[in-house]
Amino acid sequence: MSRRLESLIAFVAVLLPSTAAWAHDPIFGLGPHTLYKGGVEVHGGFLRKKAGDERENEYALALKYGLTGDWVIGIEAPFIDLSSPGSSVSGRGDVALSTKYRFWRNDLPGVQEGAAVSLAGVFDTADEAELGGGATDVIAGLSYGYEGRKWYRWGALRYRRNGTDDTGLDRGDKLLLDLVGGIRFKPTGYLAPDWVWMLELNGEYAQRAERDGVKLANTGGTQWFVSPGLMWTYRNFAIKTGVQIPVIRNLNGNQDETDYRAALEFELHL
């Protein structure tokens, strides 16, 4: 490749806010990112959760496809390993199907803003009852994103409608709020590795579970997390990692409080 052509590619990548190096969602929250028409995203993730004496490791593989430049569909299949004193279980978790539609986009020099609605279904496909919810759940979301040469910000609100399992347990719905800020200390071009540092505030409110119309005491409550993270991108490949640290916990009754959640994700855009 000639030096003149390399310079032209780098110049265009700096000007266009829709380059693959920019277009990513936060780690624990939700953003309005979609793919170009016919684009494919291969996503691998690892999530570690610890609450009291219980530990959960989740390994997930996801594929997404861009139906248009504003509409994407996806599927995610997790493998879960649970362990607690005296017992452990592992196997396939609940498969999820998702879609996202970006209904608003505003392109400015060096900046792209967007807003999207999303919908996901989490289906009862787990190998063991402990590895899934035992019913079909639905998650609806609304997200906003601002992605610039230096500053990033995202905001999202999601509602999770949890189904009733075969035992008659209504697991209670969840409301999730995410506020995220990010900074690129040294702006780079598309042809160079890129670093973005992020800080998320993640809130979760869970309703009490019910059985036969009776609310269960040791269920539901509120948790807030501060979540530092890092995103490294090179052309069409990205690595994201972060940890959720609980700062406010108000759970009902006697429940194991979350100690931390740690994530590592890999993304490849084709």
Cα separation of the termini: 21 Å
CATH architectural category = Beta Barrel
With helices defined by DSSP (H or I, 4 residues minimum), what is the helix count? 1
Q: How is the CATH topology named? A: Porin
CA radius of gyration is 20 Å
Give the beta-strand count.
Answer: 16
Shape estimate: globular
- Unreliable sequence segments: 5-22
Summarize the structure.
The chain is built from one helix and 16 strands.
How would you portray this structure in words?
- This protein has 270 residues and is mainly beta.
- It has a single domain (3-269), classed as monomeric porin ompg (Porin, Beta Barrel).
- 5% of the residues lie in helices and 60% in strands.
- The protein is built from 1 helix and 16 strands.
- The strands form 2 sheets. It has a 12-stranded antiparallel barrel with strand order 1-2-3-5-6-7-8-10-11-14-15-16. It has a 3-stranded antiparallel β-sheet with strand order 9-12-13, with no helix packed on it.
- The longest helix has 13 residues, at 3-15.
Write the layout of secondary structure elements.
Blueprint: H1 3-15, E1 40-51, E2 54-66, E3 71-84, E4 87-92, E5 96-108, E6 111-122, E7 137-148, E8 151-161, E9 169-170, E10 174-183, E11 194-206, E12 210-211, E13 214-215, E14 221-234, E15 237-251, E16 258-269
Antiparallel strand pairs: 1-2, 1-16, 2-3, 3-4, 3-5, 5-6, 6-7, 7-8, 8-10, 9-12, 10-11, 11-14, 12-13, 14-15, 15-16
Question: What key attributes describe this structure?
Answer:
single chain, mainly beta, Porin, twelve-stranded antiparallel β-barrel, three-stranded antiparallel beta sheet, 1 helix
